[in-house]
Amino acid sequence: MKKFITTAALSFMVMSASIAQTNWKLDGSHSKLGFSVTHMMVSETEGKFKVYEGTVASKTDMDFTDAKINFSADVNSINTEDEKRDGHLKSPDFFDAEKFPKITFVSKSMKPNAKLGKTAYVLTGDLTMHGVTKTVSFTAIGASQTVKDPYGNIKNGFKVFGTINRKDFGLSWNAALEAGGVAVSEAVKLDLNIELNKA
C-alpha cells in the first residue's frame, strides 16, 4: 500500500510538472498594436489601436512553444492621426465598428523558428475581424531574457510582425486612381510590440 501511494504521488508530481505553466498579462501601457498600408501607390500610412488586452500562458518564463494566447482589440480605438480618416475606417466601408466592435486572435500553435534566432517563433492562430475568422501566421521574436522592473514585476516581450490581406476579411473598399492602381493596398502590414507582465 505504501509503495502504491508513493508511486501515485510521483505520478501526480510528474503530471503536474507537465501541465505547469507561466501566466502573463499584456501590459497595454508599454505595448503597441500598429499597422500600415500603402497609400496612393507611393507611400505608407500608419495607424494603431489604442485599446486592447490579452493573456498568454507559456510553458516556462522563456519557453513559449505552443503558448496559449487570447487577444482582443477595440475597433473604435483605431488612430491614424486623422479624425476624418478614422471615422471612415470605423464606418461600414471598412471595419463597421458598430456591428463588429472587436478584433480577436486566439492562438493555435507557436513553433520555434531556429533560422531567425533562439527566441523566434512562427505564431499561428485564428484572427477574427469584421465578422470573418481566418487562420493566419506571424513571426514572433522574443526577448533574450526576462527582467524585473522597479516595482517587482517580471517582464518579457515580443515583436510580432506579418502581413494579412484585408479583403480576406471583407474590408474591400477602394478607389481606382486615374493613372492606374488603387488608393489603398489590400495588403496590411502588422507591427506589434508586446510587453508582458508575469501574473
Short description:
The chain is mainly β. Helices cover 13% and strands 47% of the residues.
SSE layout and pairings?
Layout: H1 2-19, E1 22-26, E2 32-39, E3 43-49, E4 52-58, E5 68-74, E6 78-79, H2 83-90, E7 102-112, E8 120-129, E9 132-142, E10 147-148, E11 154-165, E12 187-198
Antiparallel strand pairs: 1-4, 1-12, 2-3, 2-12, 3-6, 4-5, 5-7, 7-8, 8-9, 9-11, 10-11, 11-12
Q: How many domains, in number, for the residues? A: 1
Helical content band = 10-25%
Mean pLDDT, as a whole number? 88
Could you give the order of strands across the largest sheet?
1-4-5-7-8-9-11-12
The name of the CATH topology is: Lipocalin
Number of helices: 2
Task: Assign the structural class, choosing from mainly alpha, mainly beta, alpha/beta, alpha+beta, or little secondary structure.
Answer: mainly beta
Q: What sort of overall outline do the alpha carbons produce when their principal axes are compared?
A: globular
In what range is the share of β-strand residues? over 45%
Question: Could you name the CATH homologous superfamily?
Answer: Lipid/polyisoprenoid-binding, YceI-like
| Integer-rounded radius of gyration | 21 Å
Kindly state the number of beta strands.
Answer: 12
CATH architecture tag? Beta Barrel
